[in-house]
Amino acid sequence: MALMITDECINCDVCEPECPNNAISPGEEIYVIDHNLCTECVGHYDEPQCQQVCPVDCIPLDPEHVESHDKLMEKYHIITAA
């Protein structure tokens, strides 16, 4: 599964630099996560780094983008090969 940022986001700017895949960017009102780039940090870290630093706990799993660990690892290899 990719992650998503909910409307509880306070735009604190701490998540964006933590993403190793550059999947997080400023949206119109709050930060957004590109599900095509989000691997939940699989391949980089044991846990999603954005969730670790988020002070308001507004980065849950995105139920609309369900992916297995193997699929996330495959995506990681594609992203890092580019």
TrEMBL record:
- Note whether Iron occurs among the keywords: yes
Q: Name one GO molecular function term.
A: metal ion binding
Q: Which UniProt keywords apply?
A: 4Fe-4S, Electron transport, Iron, Iron-sulfur, Metal-binding, Repeat, Transport
Gene3D superfamilies in alphabetical order: 3.30.70.20
Query: Among the entry's GO cellular component annotations, what is one?
Result: cytoplasm
On the tree of life, the source organism's domain of life is Bacteria
Tell me which residues make up the 4Fe-4S ferredoxin-type domain.
Answer: 1-29, 31-64
Q: Which InterPro entries match?
A: 4Fe4S_Fe-S-bd (IPR017896), 4Fe4S_Fe_S_CS (IPR017900), PSI_iron-sulfur_center (IPR050157), YfhL-like (IPR047927)
The record's section on PROSITE patterns has: 4FE4S_FER_1, 4FE4S_FER_2
PANTHER family attached to this UniProt entry: PHOTOSYSTEM I IRON-SULFUR CENTER, PHOTOSYSTEM I IRON-SULFUR CENTER-RELATED
What protein is this chain from?
A: 4Fe-4S dicluster domain-containing protein
Taxonomy, top ranks, is: Bacteria, Pseudomonadati, Pseudomonadota, Gammaproteobacteria, Oceanospirillales
